[in-house]
Amino acid sequence: MKLYVAALAELLVLGGAVQLRNQEQFFAYDYSKHGQDWVAGTCTSKSRQSPIDLPTNAPVTGTFTYKYKPITAPFDLLNNGHTFAADFAGLGYGGLTYNNAWYELMNVNVHSMSEHAWRGVQKPLELHMVHKHYSSDALLIIAVAVEGPTPLAKLKSFLQVNQSYSNLRKQGVVPAPFAARYGEPPATDANFNPTIQAFLKTAPPPVNTKVSVPASLAASFEFNSLVQGAAFYEYAGSLTAPPCAEIATWLVRKDALKASDKQVMYLHDAIFKTTADFGNNRQLMPLNGRTITMKQSVLEDPPRSGGAAAAAGSGAPLQSDREFRAMKWSMDAMTIAKGATDYVKDLDMRLRNAAQAHAQALSANLEPITPATKSAVPGQPVAQGAPVMGQPQATASKQQMQMEKTAQTMTRAIAEAAREEVESATKVITAKAKEAAINAAREAAMIVNNGQGNSLAMANSVPVTR
């Protein structure tokens, strides 16, 4: 029997105000063809899809900083039928700063085999640490390959000699997944990894169930070891499960993390039994000219609030949630001001177009005045444009000129009225926008200085349009 080992997957809710959770529950799919048959969302686009095969080397372009807090409270490990996922959204366990923006850790998932390949070689496991941008739906996913001291080829050979996992279970090497009597891999094994043990502390849960993983101050878990001192491939990609949204930046660890053979086999067995022995890795996707670079991880304290974002373009992290909110309000003020300007321009264009259309309707194709009076020939209708009996030709021409002059005068009057209305609207809207921005800035300054202020100042100052 072939060996494939587990890794982490990201499946997230993309809603703006909703906290990220696993999203795969909304899509019916399996791994029988490893994603080649998926049609949901952007799974068929292939433009910037993940995973990919990684090169031997890539140019180094900089660093990113990270820091995770120890997990000292019990947490849930969920089996959703596709992966094992630990949800940490909103719990303040830390995250990373990337391109001057803060990304909070949302969840950690497991895949087997690895989804990415390193120069064509897959690893037994791959962990996905999914992070969300502080103010948008953008995701940043750290991928970490995991392997044991026994090379994968030799491990497969070992399994083939023993013919099946049933024999291994009889020998006590691998417990039956979801068994009532579960023994976690011993810490005395070679390359034992305490962080990987977070997924093996209890028996992996059956499909559509979850278990509570015990944790305390004396027996905590932390994820800094997954990132510490490592180089990471960087590229623009997507989620690796439906809807395959192309909103993710990937940081894939260059070197695999070590774990014990039993840890690797335990996770592999649980993943494969959950997925009908298909595993849960998506096929490799084409690179399509995307750039792959390298970044070095640097351990650094996050913003003091732990949830603030880094200042946009400033290179310095914000120091508190108050400053973050102030920055958001200033951005809202600029958005409203731009909206007011666009509204005035649109109003100006509409009024000018209306005035021009009105003028053209009045002045185009004017006909001479030909009242329906008696014809020169009794019993015959008056010809269109012909002079009327008793009305000289000169009189008709004069009336025609007077009508054209009247139309021109009305055109100028309408245009002048439109111009005055546009100027008046511009002054009113500009004043309102300026007043709203000043009020928002004043409230933001109060929040930053003393924590007191109206967080709805911007929203309350903007009229709602229908």
Characterise this structure.
By secondary structure, this protein is α+β, with helices and mostly antiparallel strands. It folds into two domains: 7-310, Alpha carbonic anhydrase (Carbonic Anhydrase II); 327-371 and 388-460. 30% of the residues lie in helices and 18% in strands. The chain has seven helices and 15 strands. The chain has an eight-stranded mixed beta barrel with strand order 3-6-7-9-10-13-12-15. It has a two-stranded parallel ribbon with strand order 2-8. A hairpin with a 2-residue loop joins β6 (94-98) and β7 (101-111). α5 (321-363) runs antiparallel to α6. It is elongated. The two termini are 64 Å apart.
Strand order of the largest sheet: 3-6-7-9-10-13-12-15
Given the C-alpha coordinates, what overall shape results? elongated
What percentage of amino acids are in beta strands?
15-25%
Report the strand count: 15
CATH topology of the largest domain: Carbonic Anhydrase II
What is the string of helix and strand elements? EEEEEEEEEEHHEHEEEHEHHH
